[in-house]
Amino acid sequence: MKRKCILHSHPFQKLTAQEDRIPLTHNPCAARALEIPHQSLRSLAQTLLFRNRMGVAPELTANRLLRQAVQQEMPTDDVIGAARSISLALRMLFQAGVSLQELEKKGTMRARQLARTAQIYRNLLREINLVDGSEWFWEAAKFGKSDAAIGIYGYPRLGRDEMAFIESTAADASELVLPGLDHPAFAENRNASSFFKEHGWDIRWESRSSLTLGERLSEKFLGLCSQNMEFNAHEYPYPEAEARGTLAQIKQRMILGIAPDHMAIVVRNESLYVPTLQSVAWEYQVPLRILQDTPLTETQLGAWIALLFQAIQNNLAFETTARLLRHPLGPGIAETMWDESRRQHSSGLEKWRTAHTSLSLLEWPQQDSRNNYIQKLRDVLETFELRRRTAHWAREAIAFYKLQDGLQEMTRTPDHVVNRSTFFEETTELLSLLAVPVSPGRGGVELHTPQSCAGARFAHVFLIGAAEGILPAAIHDDFMLDFHDREALAQSGIVLDNAMDTALRESQTIWSTLQTVTDSFTLSYPKLIGRDERLPSKLFDLLGASPSLPPSLPASSVEEGRKYFLQQNSGMDDAALAYAHRAWTIESRREGDEPYDEFDGIVGYPVPPDSLTFSATQLTTLGQCPFKWFAQKILGLKESEEAEEELRPGMKGKLCHQTLKIVLERVKECENPRSAALEILAEVLPEAEKLENLPPFPVWDAQRKEILTLLQNAINGEDFLRTEAVVLAAEQKFTGSWFGLNVQGYVDRIDRGLDGLIFIDYKTSASPPPGAKNAISKAKLDIQLPLYVQTAASCLYPSEQVAGAYYYSLPKAVILKQVECSQEQKWDSELGIFVNEVKKTLENGFFPVQPDVDCAACAYCPYDAVCRRGIRLARKGGTA
């Protein structure tokens, strides 16, 4: 019986294959639509190759040999990058069946180099009886016809390699069905029919009049039908809203009894939509089956191995090692050890060893044999129990075994001594080549790309992301063989796909996607992707529709239901909703114009003033913003202790104070204390560092010089050591009573001058510190210097006369602010009022969020996440 090729206007229909004909389909979806077992041209080609003792090169082997070919032919240091850059063009040549000898003769310089590299690569494959995955049809075609007739269905088009394979393999009575319409998009299939006709095939043109919705839409898309079809065209503000709207419609259909596997989502831009669709489908409890593969670099396992390599390369630096241990696949770290590691910013094996003894396995040499490195990686995976940890997720479990296979494949590479960084690069490349299904399993709503659903049949199809530049997809040129080079080669008889071929193929892909629909079709796009505004695809116009807002649907998840019922606190039996409603009520009141309540510091519980002992800093804080003091001292809120990467202002101040204290104690008896202080300053600074227990900052050597220069300039200042004054004490502690409040503190330095004692406070800033709020709510009321004069003096030197006090700026080497005892009467008035307000605040338990008018209190406040100052304070009559 003669072989036949059928060009059908709507070929993706149920066919009854003859019993003596082996059915071959483009993909499992097409086989399911035709209700036949899935076998493909590829599987048939593989079988023929295997029978003739040849095989298709595994991805890792192919990649290794391609890099070897690049190394031989191309002068480059980046072999991995060069191999990656030519792989697409090389496989395009193989698939098109281009003669590499002809290409080397007629091509451009770049094309000739590509031809030589391809030939070396092909020779390396043949040495071990392998073929590249893009040339297996050409090689399998050499082995003659199959034993039985074949039927080929569901293919939207054929490449030249597939045509050659079918012609050489198909036995008598074989049948091929391809889409065939009088439209440029199907020029390839008409050319294919001419090819088969030349080889004796019987060519038939067929059509039918009873069409599904999708088939009519596909005709409308090609301009072969003027009638408008009814379908949904929607626009969404952004991709997440589109994902939610699509899955909500799917859930409503499921509630109406439509099976999930009768519906499909089709998306061109997988990277944009897949993570969001996965997340929302889980929230909505919609079973979503994602058929596409993802590289191991995108899995949790791949992320953990990337962290492992970073940690080893960075000598177990704190940040990377902490992320490695606390990763979902990591071994974890005890909370007490974690707190200690944060305080110390543990770095290096010795410091981390106490946190996790297995980290000793991460001490890898800078150079070793590749197989030794592979074994070290295997040891790490085993010791850290990655097999057990990945078993909780199907995708991660598959990824683990894929990685093991990949490492085994790497051992077949010639075992040379390599740098550690080189091994990391090779393994990272391995992870990018290996792939696993995004969501393994069966059943559910299938997620497809336009290419993967050709030949399928679904009752309800949702084509999302139909924005201009995404669908149809933009045409991208190839670096190694651009469209200009291809035109030149075509004139020499070497035919490769040009830009027009690519555009027409994209049109046929969209046509095939529309053919999959039987009952309903929904087309949508997002108006905004990131910050880029998007226009609707021309597909809307071609199908005769304008996108509009989607219909409002009921809440599709518990989380969405909570949003709806939140303000009502009723209508939904959900334990979390009661807590959420209470939190929402509290926040609504905080954001409104109602007076402050207990959630803004008005707790109403008295704090007896005589039960507390204040420092000047605490009183200033209480006077600047009562809530700030309340959060710190009553609620006990504080930031987690963590080692600093650089010298912060507070630590810098302590170091400077400690250094000056030691220096002045040693030189106060000297005849010229200033000169003596400058002489010993450099040797005293390291002593002060030890006393302050400074952590090892990465750039401390440079910062030490800055501190030394700052202190030298400060000591050289005229007002630092006055000729008429002598240093009496440094860092002197005092405890006493001030306007009825218990107070304590430290005075940086006390000098005895001609007019009496002078109290000095060092500042590492260039301006006076903000004080408590004054009568007009500005942070100008100084507490510290009056406290020194009025209380520290009487506590430490009760019989001595006091001259005054001042702030001395270390960086500017000048006095910032000075007070004298003559101002004491004014202090009694202003500060007396201040202390009375403090007592009233404490006794009434009244600690509102009321910073000074300039918000100086907020500049370095760590409690902004708690108080959430801003425009809400203005609504309550406070300072925004």
Set down the secondary structure blueprint.
Blueprint lengths: L3 E5 L12 E5 L2 H7 L6 H11 L3 E2 L2 H15 L5 H18 L3 H7 L2 H19 L2 E2 L4 H5 L8 E5 L6 H10 L5 E5 L7 H12 L3 E5 L6 H9 L10 E5 L2 H17 L7 E5 L2 H15 L3 E3 L2 E3 L4 H14 L4 H9 L8 H10 L4 H5 L13 E3 H14 L2 H5 L3 H17 L6 E3 H14 L1 E3 L7 E4 L9 E7 L18 H9 L7 H17 L1 E10 L1 E2 L2 E2 L4 H5 L15 H8 L9 H17 L21 E2 L1 H9 L1 H9 L14 H19 L5 H19 L8 H17 L9 E13 L2 E13 L2 E8 L8 E2 L5 E3 L2 H13 L5 E8 L4 E7 L3 H21 L19 H4 L3 H5 L5
Parallel strand pairs: 1-6, 1-7, 2-5, 3-4, 5-6, 8-17, 9-15, 9-16, 10-15, 16-17, 20-22, 23-26
Antiparallel strand pairs: 11-14, 12-13, 18-19, 21-22, 22-23, 24-25, 26-27
Helix pairs in contact: 3-4, 3-6, 5-6, 10-22, 11-12, 13-14, 13-20, 26-27, 28-29, 29-30
Secondary structure tally, helices: 34
Mass-distribution shape: elongated
Strand element count: 27
Catalogue the unreliable spans: none
- Briefly note the structural class of the backbone: alpha/beta
User: Largest beta sheet: what is the strand line-up?
Assistant: 8-17-16-9-15-10
Distance between the termini: 89 Å
Q: What is the domain tally?
A: 5
What Rg, in angstroms, do the CA atoms define?
39 Å
* Helix share bin: 40-55%
Main sheet summary = 6 strands, parallel
> What share of the residues does DSSP label as strand, in percent?
15-25%
* Overall mean confidence score, pLDDT: 89
Oligomer: single chain
